[in-house]
Amino acid sequence: MEDYKAIYCLRCETHTKHIPKLSAVRDGCRVCSICSRMNGVYTLVKPDDKDFLKYSGDIKWMVYDKFGSYHATLNEIGLGCSLLMSPFSDDYTWLTTIVKEITEEDEHHIQFETENSLYILHKPIK
């Protein structure tokens, strides 16, 4: 299990130290040491949709070939790829449409626009 310096807490609205409690870790989450809220290691939100919330323990960026078929997986965002959130199995995951523009990126978050949505991905600080 990977240890993180800080994970974004939706209640505290900042990156905080999180505790790896077993029930949370199984769901790709950790527990905020300040407010005890369970948060995803990676948290995906849509600024225009207050009800949209996806979280996961890991992410991958999917690259497609010129025919639109899966070609490769990246560790970093790139134009023309899609975000895939864990679990990476037959269980439900979230896959965005293709990234058209990266509007902000730093060690804390990535704001990007896809073919049909604007997203903010909160990343853990390693």
Low-confidence segments, given as residue ranges, are none
Helix run count: 1
Average residue pLDDT: 90
Distance between the termini: 13 Å
Counting DSSP E segments of at least 2 residues, the number of strands comes to 14
Helix content: under 10%
Major sheet, described briefly? 5 strands, antiparallel
Number of domains: 1
Numbering strands along the chain, what is their spatial order in the largest sheet?
A: 7-6-14-13-12
Shape: globular
How do the SSEs run, as a string of H and E? Answer: EEEHEEEEEEEEEEE
If you compute it from the alpha carbons, what radius of gyration comes out, rounded to the nearest whole angstrom? 15 Å
Q: How large a portion of the residues is in β-strands, by DSSP E?
A: over 45%
Structural class given helices, strands, pairing? mainly beta
Which features would summarize this protein structure in a list?
126 residues; 5-stranded antiparallel beta sheet; 4-stranded antiparallel beta sheet; 1 helix; mainly beta; 3% helix; globular
Describe the structure.
- The structure is a single chain.
- The protein has 126 residues and is mainly beta.
- The chain has one domain (7-122).
- Helices cover 3% and strands 51% of the residues.
- It has one helix and 14 strands; from the N terminus they run βββαβββββββββββ.
- The strands form four sheets. A five-stranded antiparallel beta sheet has the order 7-6-14-13-12, with no helix packed on it.
- Strand 4 and strand 5 (38-40) form a beta hairpin.
- The two termini are 13 Å apart.
